[in-house]
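Record type: monomer structure entry
Structure origin: computed from sequence
Chain ID: A
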Amino acid sequence: MQKDLFLFTPPFTQLNTPYPATAYIKGFLNTKNIDSYQMDLGIEVILELFSSIGMRKVFEDARDKNSILSDNSQRIYALKDHYIRPLDNIISFLQGHNDTFARQICTDNFLPQASRFDQIDDLEWAFGNMGIQDKAKHLATLYLEDLSDFIVDCVDDHFGFSRYAERLGMSANSFDELYEELQQPLSYIDEITVSILEKKLQETQPKLVVMSIPFPGNLYSGLRSCQFIKKHFPKTKIAMGGGFPNTELRSLKDARVFEFVDFICLDDGELPLELVADYVLHHPLKPLQDLELKRTFILEDEQVTYKNNSKKGDYKQLQVGTPDYADLLLDQYISVIEVANPMHSLWSDGRWNKLTMAHGCYWGKCTFCDISLDYISLYEPIAATILVDRMEQLIAQTGEQGFHFVDEAAPPALMRAVALEILKRKLTVTWWTNIRFEKNFTQDLCHLLKASGCIAVSGGLEVASDRLLKLIDKGVTVEQVAQVTRSFTAAGIMVHTYLMYGYPTQTIQETVDSLEMTRQLFQLGVIQSGFWHQFALTAHSPVGMNTQDYGITPHLKEISFANNDVQFTDSTGIDHSIFSDGLKKSLFNFMHGIGFDMSLQEWFDFEIPQTTITPYYIEDCLNTDSFRSIKSNSKVIYLGNLPLIGRFSKTKKGKEVLYLDLVFHDKSSSFQIELPEDQGNWLLDHLELWQPGHKLTTFSQIKTSYESQFETLEPFWYSEEMEILRENGLLVL
């Protein structure tokens, strides 16, 4: 099974689905006929660690170290046999096998319980009347988290299910601490990692190893892996890319990093990797100074050198191929339910095929965002037909019909085109993505997205304050967010919103008012999920590059390694971190439909000012949604079924008039409308043409057609009969 390239993601990212970077790269390499193998090292380490054999070794390691520290760890150690015995069956259940085991998991006293189960009395309150499968997944997750706590306490304090030694990689302006840690003996988890890696490298014998580092929590383990490769496979070259180097390593100076890797590629990886692969596979003796590379760091004459001398242009998105999930253990990922947050369950429960609708962000203005970097600033959408082609290819390869579009912000027009293409091809898929809450998401568009399989969207409300939204250059107002989220909710699409506190110049009053806005949005049911995070200053954002314009003073350090998060002092002098617990506690309650009548003061253990937001502010925003006239180029779509037709006559002014009785059936109910025969026949002829799969019809074309036979269209279009159709699948987009 010898391969030219070996692609891997080091521990740890998600448990339920592979991080897509290597699948994207493998798909591109296929278009160039470059042979490659990929693996998600993280899931393989997890599966070995959380097995009866692996966990027995963990307990032995803890005993040998005599390192049982806390009361909680002592309890877990005392119950070690009860933790080990069901472990293989628990993992199998979380992989989607043996559904009947859920009933056993949910029985009292089956699973051993340590500190993670302290909140078990709140289970019914937090999750409501959840199904037995979800309840079992949650209990099994708590059981695994107990074991994780034991590992952290007694075996390896770097461990985390979705990150490893994250602290060492975050904002590490200097490489010193990480380098020192890499000189220490291998930890127990390091040993598992390199053991699995060695077997795969022996099988594949690659000439080039390509490592994706998406997050700081992958960096330590990635460099450990590279350290092992350098020692035991010294002829193999190593290239690194991914989200972490793209954002953090743009100012790299420390030559010691190249003890672990040979190339560090930035931004879109296709062309940089192709040029590196061409050198390694076909011209390995060529002097480094003669190489033509794209956005790539190398070590040249003991100095870190950035080479961007290739004249080749980057590939367009239609040229990069369909992501390829071959080689990955797709049936062995673990679905977990950690917290009672509906959007977080999408992240951790179930496996999703990952795709991107558009490269970059079509808005590209938010001042807290790294909009100076190519992965955001270079916007390039992909044609809907190509996207749905790729969806069909992935369904055929993986057997999974769920898709997470991982866009910075999916464009509404492209979402509409994708939805229509899905409906045209009669695909049954489930999908979700990230958006901006912009006015183009009308209620009709949201109904179309729902019909195509969209189940959820996430978007940034950030600070629910119009002053700060303007300062952020978000391009939305609170009123607009309220109206758009109502449209999604009315269509049956779940809405998750990202919330921010501590933005530069934000006052305490604005934080309190933002919380009140959030309370009202949840109380009115227009958003269902949310998450508060404190503003972080990044070096590549407009705020980071123009700190004087935002009233903050950055605490700059000499950069020789990572450069992204920047510590700063706000001119307001406010310590925004004191709001963290109260904001998160209130949000948790709001998501479960309680706490709306409580004073905002009750969420905090220090004095806060009264909100200045009126109690019905969001309700008033929703009531100001004004009538919008239909544009002549608007498209008309009909999502319903064609009716059963009956005929009858009415006598009007002594004259018999023929009518059509149109009975429409949908999946849960039926309705009927009555129209004069000539109007009814006109409508019947057009309803079929308005269904997905036909050429899109504009409102102008409909108006011309109708008025060629009858009088002005508008009285008919806004009649009671047509309003009934508008409520049942007749959309104007």
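Annotation 1: The first helix runs from residue 21 to 31.
Annotation 2: The mean pLDDT is 91.
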